[in-house]
Amino acid sequence: MQPAMKSKNRFKLGTALMYIVLSAWAMTTIYPLFWIVNNSFKESRDVMNKSFSLALEPVFINYTTAFDRINIGRSYVNSLIMSGGTVLCVLLFGGLAAYVLSRFTFRGKRFINSILYATLLVPAFATVVPVYEFLIKTSLVNTYWGLILPQTAGNLTFATLVIAGYMSTIAKELEEAAFMDGCNRWQMFTKIFMPVSRPAFASVSIFVFLWSYNDLFSALIFVSKEKVRPIVALLSEISSQYGTDFGLMATAVTLTVMPILLIYLFISKFIEKGLTEGAVKG
After folding, report:
1. First-to-last C-alpha distance (Å) of the chain
2. At residue 279, what are phi and psi to the nearest 5 degrees?
3. CA atoms within 13 A on the CB side of 55
4. Which of 14, 46, 105, 205 is most exposed by smallest CB count within 10 Å?
5. Which residues have CB under 8 Å from 187's CB, separation 6+?
6. Number of domains in the chain
7. What does the pLDDT look like over 95-118, one tens digit per residue?
8. Alpha-carbon distances, residue 193 vs 43, 98, 169 (angstroms)
9. Considering the domain boundaries, does residue 54 fall inside one?
C-alpha cells in the first residue's frame, strides 16, 4: 500500500510541476500578444506612459489610420494573392513529384531523393543573387510572380518529401484496383492519390502559406513597390516611417498576426493529422 501511495503522490507532483512549467511558458507567449493587442487600442502617448495598463476606454483611431492612410487592406490582398498562388503551385508540382517518387521505380531515384534532402540544407539567402538576376531578366521584379516563383521553389522540396512519405503508405491494392477500372496515371493521381492524401496536402498547404505570408526577407528584395507590397513588408515600412507612433505600430503588428493566429486555431487539427497519420497508416 505504501509504495503505491508514494508512486501516486509522485505522479501528482510531477503532473503539477509539468502544468506549472507549461503555464509559465504559455504566459511568455500569450502575454506579449495580449500586450500588443491591448496597446493597439491606445493613443501613442498612452502606450508610452501606461503601456502595461488595460485599455479601459479603447480608441480606434489607430485602425482607422491603418486602413485610410497606410492602405493596409491593399497589402492584405497582395499577401493573399502571393501566398495563395504559392500554395497552389507547390501543391500541384510537389504533389506530382511526390506521386512519381513514391509510386514509381526508376534509375536514379535514390540519387534524386538525396539531392532533395541536400537542398534542405541550402540557406535561402545563398540563392538571392541568381534568383534576383533571373527575375530582372524576365521582368518579374515587383510583380506577383516575382514572389510566387521564388517561394514556390523554396518550399517545393519540403512539400515533395512530406507528400511522398504519405503516398508511399497507400496500399498497392488500391492502385491495382484503379488500373483495373481503367484509370490512367493522371486520373490515378487526381481521383485516388490526392483524395487519400488529403491530410498531407492540408498540412503542406498550411505550412507553405504561413512561411510565404511571413517571408519578410524575400518580400523586401523582390516586391518592394507599393502596388504589390505584402503585409510583412508594409509592417517593416511602418516601423521605419512611423517609429514614434507606437499605437499605430501596435495596430500594424496586431493586424499582421491575428489572421494567421485565427487560421491556425481553425485548422490546427489538420496539421497534427497530416504529420502523424502517415507514420502509423497501413
Report:
1. 43
2. -75, -20
3. 20
4. 105
5. 178
6. 2
7. 999 999 988 888 888 898 889 888
8. 54, 10, 11
9. no
